[in-house]
Amino acid sequence: MEEKRRILANEVDQTIKKLVSMINKNPNDWRNYNDLGIVLVQIADYASAEELIMKALGLFKTDAKAQQSLLYTLGNVYYGAGEYQKAMKYYQKIIDNTIKGDAFVMIAQSFMQQKQYQQALVYALTAQEMLPDDVKILILVGDIWLALGDFDKADVEYRRALSYDTDNVAALFGRGIIALTLNRPSAALFARVEQLDSKYYADNKQRVDEIATVIHSRQNK
Fold first, then answer.
1. 110 close to 133: Cβ distance less than 8 angstroms
2. 39 near 8, Cβ under 8 Å?
3. pLDDT above 90: percentage of residues in the chain
4. CA–CA distances in Å: residue 190 to residues 175, 180, 194
5. Each residue of 196-217: b (16+ CB within 10 Å) or e?
6. Three-state DSSP state, 152
7. How many domains does the chain fold into?
8. Residue ranges making up the domain that contains 47
Protein backbone atom coordinates (compact mmCIF):
# COMPACT_ATOMS: atom_id res chain seq x y z
CA MET A 1 0.00 0.00 0.00
CA GLU A 2 2.84 2.38 0.90
CA GLU A 3 4.57 1.61 -2.40
CA LYS A 4 1.33 2.25 -4.29
CA ARG A 5 0.96 5.64 -2.58
CA ARG A 6 4.56 6.53 -3.43
CA ILE A 7 4.04 5.65 -7.10
CA LEU A 8 0.80 7.65 -7.24
CA ALA A 9 2.44 10.67 -5.57
CA ASN A 10 5.29 10.50 -8.08
CA GLU A 11 2.83 10.37 -11.00
CA VAL A 12 0.99 13.43 -9.68
CA ASP A 13 4.29 15.27 -9.21
CA GLN A 14 5.31 14.47 -12.78
CA THR A 15 1.91 15.64 -14.08
CA ILE A 16 2.25 18.95 -12.24
CA LYS A 17 5.78 19.50 -13.59
CA LYS A 18 4.60 18.69 -17.12
CA LEU A 19 1.68 21.14 -16.92
CA VAL A 20 3.87 23.91 -15.46
CA SER A 21 6.30 23.36 -18.34
CA MET A 22 3.44 23.51 -20.86
CA ILE A 23 2.22 26.79 -19.35
CA ASN A 24 5.71 28.27 -19.55
CA LYS A 25 6.10 27.17 -23.18
CA ASN A 26 2.62 28.25 -24.24
CA PRO A 27 1.14 30.77 -21.78
CA ASN A 28 -1.72 31.53 -24.19
CA ASP A 29 -3.45 28.15 -23.80
CA TRP A 30 -5.99 28.39 -20.97
CA ARG A 31 -6.52 24.62 -20.91
CA ASN A 32 -3.12 24.04 -19.31
CA TYR A 33 -4.00 26.39 -16.45
CA ASN A 34 -7.35 24.68 -16.04
CA ASP A 35 -5.83 21.18 -16.08
CA LEU A 36 -3.23 22.20 -13.51
CA GLY A 37 -5.97 23.67 -11.32
CA ILE A 38 -7.86 20.36 -11.49
CA VAL A 39 -4.76 18.41 -10.40
CA LEU A 40 -4.13 20.83 -7.53
CA VAL A 41 -7.71 20.30 -6.33
CA GLN A 42 -7.17 16.53 -6.48
CA ILE A 43 -4.20 16.83 -4.09
CA ALA A 44 -6.13 19.32 -1.91
CA ASP A 45 -3.76 22.24 -2.58
CA TYR A 46 -6.69 24.64 -2.67
CA ALA A 47 -4.72 27.84 -2.04
CA SER A 48 -2.44 27.26 -5.04
CA ALA A 49 -5.40 26.19 -7.19
CA GLU A 50 -7.35 29.32 -6.27
CA GLU A 51 -4.40 31.59 -7.06
CA LEU A 52 -3.77 29.86 -10.40
CA ILE A 53 -7.39 29.89 -11.61
CA MET A 54 -7.93 33.50 -10.51
CA LYS A 55 -4.84 34.46 -12.51
CA ALA A 56 -6.10 32.53 -15.55
CA LEU A 57 -9.52 34.21 -15.35
CA GLY A 58 -7.74 37.56 -15.62
CA LEU A 59 -5.51 36.42 -18.48
CA PHE A 60 -8.34 34.99 -20.59
CA LYS A 61 -11.18 37.39 -19.76
CA THR A 62 -12.11 37.86 -23.44
CA ASP A 63 -12.37 34.10 -24.13
CA ALA A 64 -15.92 32.97 -23.28
CA LYS A 65 -15.11 29.25 -23.41
CA ALA A 66 -12.10 29.70 -21.14
CA GLN A 67 -14.11 31.78 -18.68
CA GLN A 68 -16.83 29.16 -18.34
CA SER A 69 -14.43 26.25 -17.80
CA LEU A 70 -12.26 28.22 -15.38
CA LEU A 71 -15.29 29.42 -13.39
CA TYR A 72 -16.44 25.81 -13.04
CA THR A 73 -12.98 24.73 -11.88
CA LEU A 74 -12.87 27.62 -9.40
CA GLY A 75 -16.20 26.42 -8.04
CA ASN A 76 -14.61 22.99 -7.56
CA VAL A 77 -11.71 24.60 -5.70
CA TYR A 78 -14.07 26.12 -3.14
CA TYR A 79 -16.24 22.99 -2.99
CA GLY A 80 -13.17 20.88 -2.22
CA ALA A 81 -12.16 23.36 0.46
CA GLY A 82 -15.62 23.12 2.05
CA GLU A 83 -16.58 26.70 1.14
CA TYR A 84 -19.92 25.70 -0.34
CA GLN A 85 -21.56 29.13 -0.49
CA LYS A 86 -18.60 30.54 -2.39
CA ALA A 87 -18.53 27.49 -4.68
CA MET A 88 -22.20 27.93 -5.59
CA LYS A 89 -21.58 31.56 -6.53
CA TYR A 90 -19.26 30.39 -9.32
CA TYR A 91 -21.35 27.40 -10.40
CA GLN A 92 -24.29 29.76 -10.87
CA LYS A 93 -22.27 31.74 -13.42
CA ILE A 94 -22.19 28.76 -15.79
CA ILE A 95 -24.30 29.25 -18.93
CA ASP A 96 -22.37 26.94 -21.29
CA ASN A 97 -24.76 24.05 -21.99
CA THR A 98 -21.90 21.54 -22.25
CA ILE A 99 -21.12 21.94 -18.53
CA LYS A 100 -24.33 23.49 -17.19
CA GLY A 101 -25.70 20.11 -16.12
CA ASP A 102 -22.48 19.43 -14.20
CA ALA A 103 -22.77 22.83 -12.54
CA PHE A 104 -26.33 22.04 -11.40
CA VAL A 105 -25.06 18.75 -9.96
CA MET A 106 -22.37 20.57 -7.99
CA ILE A 107 -24.87 23.13 -6.69
CA ALA A 108 -27.09 20.25 -5.56
CA GLN A 109 -24.14 18.59 -3.85
CA SER A 110 -23.20 21.89 -2.20
CA PHE A 111 -26.71 22.14 -0.74
CA MET A 112 -26.47 18.48 0.32
CA GLN A 113 -23.26 19.19 2.22
CA GLN A 114 -25.13 21.94 4.09
CA LYS A 115 -28.09 19.59 4.76
CA GLN A 116 -30.40 21.83 2.72
CA TYR A 117 -32.08 18.91 1.01
CA GLN A 118 -35.09 20.63 -0.57
CA GLN A 119 -32.85 23.13 -2.35
CA ALA A 120 -30.53 20.29 -3.36
CA LEU A 121 -33.47 18.41 -4.86
CA VAL A 122 -34.46 21.34 -7.09
CA TYR A 123 -31.03 21.51 -8.71
CA ALA A 124 -30.57 17.74 -8.87
CA LEU A 125 -33.90 17.27 -10.67
CA THR A 126 -32.98 20.08 -13.07
CA ALA A 127 -29.68 18.34 -13.81
CA GLN A 128 -31.58 15.08 -14.30
CA GLU A 129 -33.82 16.71 -16.91
CA MET A 130 -30.69 17.71 -18.82
CA LEU A 131 -28.88 14.38 -18.35
CA PRO A 132 -31.63 11.78 -17.74
CA ASP A 133 -29.43 8.70 -18.14
CA ASP A 134 -26.51 9.88 -16.02
CA VAL A 135 -25.96 7.26 -13.30
CA LYS A 136 -24.23 9.70 -10.93
CA ILE A 137 -27.23 12.02 -11.08
CA LEU A 138 -29.67 9.15 -10.51
CA ILE A 139 -27.74 8.24 -7.37
CA LEU A 140 -27.58 11.87 -6.25
CA VAL A 141 -31.36 12.22 -6.59
CA GLY A 142 -31.76 8.92 -4.74
CA ASP A 143 -29.50 10.15 -1.94
CA ILE A 144 -31.51 13.35 -1.61
CA TRP A 145 -34.84 11.49 -1.47
CA LEU A 146 -33.26 9.19 1.12
CA ALA A 147 -32.17 12.19 3.21
CA LEU A 148 -35.72 13.58 2.95
CA GLY A 149 -37.12 10.26 4.17
CA ASP A 150 -38.96 9.35 0.95
CA PHE A 151 -37.68 5.78 0.67
CA ASP A 152 -39.94 4.76 -2.23
CA LYS A 153 -38.69 7.56 -4.49
CA ALA A 154 -35.10 6.95 -3.39
CA ASP A 155 -35.42 3.26 -4.25
CA VAL A 156 -36.78 4.08 -7.71
CA GLU A 157 -33.68 6.17 -8.46
CA TYR A 158 -31.27 3.54 -7.12
CA ARG A 159 -33.00 0.83 -9.16
CA ARG A 160 -32.76 2.98 -12.29
CA ALA A 161 -29.05 3.50 -11.64
CA LEU A 162 -28.58 -0.26 -11.26
CA SER A 163 -30.39 -0.85 -14.55
CA TYR A 164 -27.47 0.98 -16.21
CA ASP A 165 -24.73 -0.28 -13.89
CA THR A 166 -25.61 -3.49 -12.05
CA ASP A 167 -22.55 -3.33 -9.80
CA ASN A 168 -22.80 0.31 -8.76
CA VAL A 169 -21.82 0.24 -5.10
CA ALA A 170 -23.44 3.59 -4.23
CA ALA A 171 -26.82 2.44 -5.54
CA LEU A 172 -26.51 -0.97 -3.86
CA PHE A 173 -25.51 0.70 -0.60
CA GLY A 174 -28.44 3.12 -0.83
CA ARG A 175 -30.86 0.23 -1.31
CA GLY A 176 -29.24 -1.49 1.66
CA ILE A 177 -29.77 1.60 3.83
CA ILE A 178 -33.44 1.71 2.81
CA ALA A 179 -33.92 -1.99 3.59
CA LEU A 180 -32.15 -1.66 6.94
CA THR A 181 -34.15 1.42 7.91
CA LEU A 182 -37.43 -0.34 7.07
CA ASN A 183 -36.27 -3.46 8.96
CA ARG A 184 -36.15 -5.53 5.77
CA PRO A 185 -33.39 -7.99 4.75
CA SER A 186 -30.29 -5.95 3.92
CA ALA A 187 -27.31 -8.22 4.61
CA ALA A 188 -27.00 -9.47 1.02
CA LEU A 189 -26.89 -5.91 -0.35
CA PHE A 190 -24.18 -4.81 2.08
CA ALA A 191 -22.22 -8.02 1.48
CA ARG A 192 -22.31 -7.32 -2.25
CA VAL A 193 -21.03 -3.77 -1.68
CA GLU A 194 -18.20 -5.04 0.51
CA GLN A 195 -17.30 -7.66 -2.10
CA LEU A 196 -17.24 -5.11 -4.92
CA ASP A 197 -15.49 -2.29 -3.07
CA SER A 198 -14.26 -2.99 0.45
CA LYS A 199 -12.92 0.56 0.87
CA TYR A 200 -16.28 2.12 -0.02
CA TYR A 201 -18.00 -0.19 2.46
CA ALA A 202 -15.49 0.56 5.22
CA ASP A 203 -15.78 4.31 4.62
CA ASN A 204 -19.59 4.17 4.86
CA LYS A 205 -20.10 1.41 7.43
CA GLN A 206 -20.68 3.95 10.21
CA ARG A 207 -24.04 4.82 8.62
CA VAL A 208 -25.04 1.15 8.79
CA ASP A 209 -23.98 0.88 12.43
CA GLU A 210 -25.84 4.07 13.38
CA ILE A 211 -29.09 2.91 11.77
CA ALA A 212 -28.74 -0.56 13.31
CA THR A 213 -28.29 1.05 16.75
CA VAL A 214 -31.42 3.19 16.30
CA ILE A 215 -33.47 0.17 15.18
CA HIS A 216 -32.17 -1.93 18.08
CA SER A 217 -33.05 0.76 20.65
CA ARG A 218 -36.50 1.19 19.05
CA GLN A 219 -37.17 -2.56 19.30
CA ASN A 220 -36.16 -2.65 22.96
CA LYS A 221 -38.42 0.18 24.09
1. no
2. no
3. 85
4. 9, 10, 6
5. ebeeebeebeeebeeeeeeeee
6. helix
7. 2
8. 1-132
